[in-house]
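Workshop exercise sheet. Pairs work together: one partner reads the sequence aloud, the other fills in the structure field after running the prediction. Swap roles for the next sheet.
Pair: D.N. / O.F.
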Amino acid sequence: ARAYHLSSLQKSTLVQSVVAAYAAKGITADPLTWDLSAPTFEDVYAEYSARPQSQRGEDLDHIMENLTLLDLFDSEASEDTTVYDLIRGPVVMDMSGYPETVKHFTLSLLLELLLAQMQSQKRSLGRDLQKMVLIDNADSLLRAGCPGLEGLLTQGREFGLGLLLSAHSL
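Structure field:
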């Protein structure tokens, strides 16, 4: 919602779609259901598409459709891993060729997930470097107002995360 500056109605519809997708997989507020396989983006999109047009909005329709067509998300939930675990070793994400909005969405999502997962970990008492993230063209993310990046900039060191940002302009 933050990456695309969605209205409160669109955000609510999206949240309801996510909750419905989890419910369809049998996952509820009961912790005993949390080990079940999580829904995929396709599951969320199916729940979203089933909602009345009056709840959806043209902008969110366009965003969801584009994300589906770009096939950014894995269709097998069993293959999923946490973002924190993903960066155990070198990982390169080549986003060249994608539209700027998709780049910002994907990176914003990954950085917010990384921040949330770091916050659930123990703080690094010695503040020794445990992980390093390099973001090329970070100036475009900063201009767009990426909360995940801002959170990592202010809290990353507490969790042993180093950030290296590059920019092509001042």
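Discussion prompt: The mean pLDDT is 81. What would you look at next?
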